[in-house]
Design goal:
- Two copies of one chain form a homodimer.
- In chain A, strand 1, helix 5 and strand 2 form a beta-alpha-beta unit.
- Among the domains of chain A are: 46 residues, 434 Repressor (Amino-terminal Domain), CATH 1.10.260.40; 131 residues, Response regulator (Rossmann fold, 3-Layer(aba) Sandwich).
- By secondary structure, chain A is α/β, with parallel strands linked by helices.
- Chain A has 14 helices and twelve strands.
- In chain A, the strands form two sheets. In chain A, strands 2-1-3-4-5-11 form a six-stranded parallel beta sheet.
- The N and C termini of chain A lie far apart (84 Å).
- Chain B binds a DNA duplex (16 and 16 nucleotides) through helix 2 and helix 4.
Chain lengths: 343, 343
DNA sequence: CTGAAAGCGCTTACAG
DNA sequence: CTGAAAGCGCTTACAG
């Protein structure tokens, strides 16, 4: 039913090797035979079979994007943006692109290596991996080219693409301090998340740079969940009525915090200023609009794929394995600005 | 470097046929040899090569999800939800899942059929296709199992999954009328979009059922874009100051309309009531919150994949090719409710 | 510029 | 319960 290379060869009166050459862009084929072959191919609706091609050539490489816990958060398009970025890169490259979803459960059933072997994958970009996931341990010592988004691992075969989370957090908190906030709480994600660690470090660094003592009780963890952030914010503000600003490690949590503040009869930014992280779409549509640290996930995805191909193609030094994408603070309405007093 | 079936067979002291049987779950293998093979396979880190499997077996089927114009709208997670749904179905099926993005441009370069042949695809789910796209014409007469989301085509090999757009629009407009709105504008998407046509039909039907004459000037098209909706709304309301409600064919456009109304110094829902469509996340976070027709895109994706496998496996009658997913109106703050006057 | 032949890693009747 | 052998649709030296 479906035309194969053999039929094309027969109809065109040539060998399959010649047909193959035409379809692989070799130049050593007579112009006329080439034209004839193309014509026949078109007529027979022929297109090379990928499976056969992959099998016989050792060349055809395929890059996978693995999204962890795709059973995702409807509130954020971040995974989709990463997907778009990786896809865009592979489009204009020679790599095939495939997409898979995984989960902590699935990772227990099948090792990372097995999964990649099975699917003939020569390199993978992973997004959403947690440091408690089985894959994480395996990737630390894998020899399979891998690029992690947001997670750093010490392995020459594994690269990382992310923004400079520490610097970004530093800037955000520094901005609060320069606007006369000295009692600043932090709603962080999870102690186990790489980005949380960096963002907290940036928070601490900014306070220290301004000679503000870090109050450990001001730092709370809400696991990146809106509802947990809601309750934690209420608690935090009830226990520490001197807090005037909150730095949140994600917009989702910032939105939960805003809701808590409103429900407490307080006002953003009048009573409490808030900065979020990620700049998801909601940040611009919520009232008041949310100041946030933006990261370009599409670009992160694109660069991840680019870095991956570099790792596949050449041995790289560890130092080249880390690609930092610029971040940008989007200033909106949720922070009360004010000249710093000389107290 | 990578173990093949041959090496496993050699180490385990059996033939490759036996190894193959074990990995394909055939029962006619001695328990002990099976255990031994599995043990060796594990030790050698063996996993079957998909390309070879696909090539030699005529069984391995792969289903593709093609997202059109993935160069997407950051404001909506709908494509991601569809992806998740299709992915979830293929997970628990015997089908392999692959994902591709396309665009009007790419469709011009390579036909639908060629694309599918090349990638060894036995069936495809397409989302985001426009009736002006090259694929659309081709799919009308393809014999390749295909499921379109939101678009109906008369071809036994092509199925459709969608909500009942006409009924949903009818309900929404009927709800407005029952709350005493008689001058209702519609911000529609595009005259060429299948869903737009159905939603407009529902709008007209609701008015007619209530003996309200349709004023053609009340129906405007904003191409599903927020900014166009913004301008069109201003125009519409300036020209027709008697309008008290707007039915929008998407939340994005509804949000543009809300902004326009605010900028005109009017109030939602005090002066103008609004209903949107899709129930994207923004609808719940915007002020006032937006009443909207919700469609479960994850479920639509899942059912699309399910329908596709049915089409692949059996000849179906045209009448069975259309799967309708339930919709639901989410009542929120953007509609002013009021008892209908007996005028 | 062209073709014969080996081989990629599997599956699947078929024979035993 | 097990294995020898043909074949899936290609690519790639190699010879001419």
């Amino acid at each position: 039913m479906r035309a194969t290379i053999r039929e094309v060869a027969k109809v065109a009166g040539v060998s399959i090797a010649t047909v193959s050459k035409v379809f692989n862009g070799y130049s050593d084929v007579n112009h006329e035979t080439k034209e004839r072959i193309l014509e026949v191919a078109k007529q027979l609706d022929y297109a090379p079979n990928m499976a056969a091609r992959t099998l016989s050539s050792k060349k055809q490489q395929t890059i996978a994007l693995i999204l962890n816990e795709l059973n995702f958060n409807r509130k954020s398009t971040m995974p989709l943006e990463v997907l778009d970025g990786v896809h865009e890169f592979t489009e204009q490259s020679d790599y095939e692109f495939v997409f898979y979803g995984t989960s902590t459960e699935k990772q227990k059933d099948k090792t990372f290596r097995q999964f990649c072997y099975e699917h003939n994958i020569s390199g993978v970009v992973i997004q959403g991996l947690k440091m408690t996931d089985p894959y994480y341990q395996e990737i630390r010592e894998t020899n399979l080219p891998t690029v992690l988004i947001d997670i750093v691992v010490d392995n020459p075969k594994v690269g990382t693409v992310a923004i400079d989370n520490e610097a970004a957090a530093y800037e955000a908190v520094d901005y609060l301090i320069r606007n006369n906030h000295h009692k600043i709480g932090m709603i962080n994600g999870s102690r186990n998340a790489n980005v949380s660690i960096f963002r907290e470090a940036g928070y601490r660094k900014a306070l220290e740079r301004h000679h503000i003592v870090v109050n450990e009780e001001y730092i709370q963890y809400a696991n990146y969940e809106e509802d947990i952030a809601y309750f934690i914010t209420k608690n935090l503000l009830n226990n520490h009525s001197d807090i005037t600003a909150l730095f949140c490690a994600s917009d989702i949590m910032a939105i939960g915090a805003m809701r808590a503040i409103k429900d407490m009869g307080k006002n953003v930014p009048g009573d409490i200023s808030i900065i979020g992280f990620d700049d998801i779409v909601l940040a611009s549509y919520v009232t008041p609009t949310l100041t946030s640290v933006a990261q370009d996930m599409q670009k992160i995805g694109y660069e991840a794929a680019a870095l991956l191909t570099d790792i596949i193609n050449k041995e790289m030094k560890d130092t080249e394995n880390f690609r930092i994408i610029p971040h940008e603070i989007k200033y909106r309405e949720s922070v009360k600005e004010g000249i710093k007093n000389a107290d």
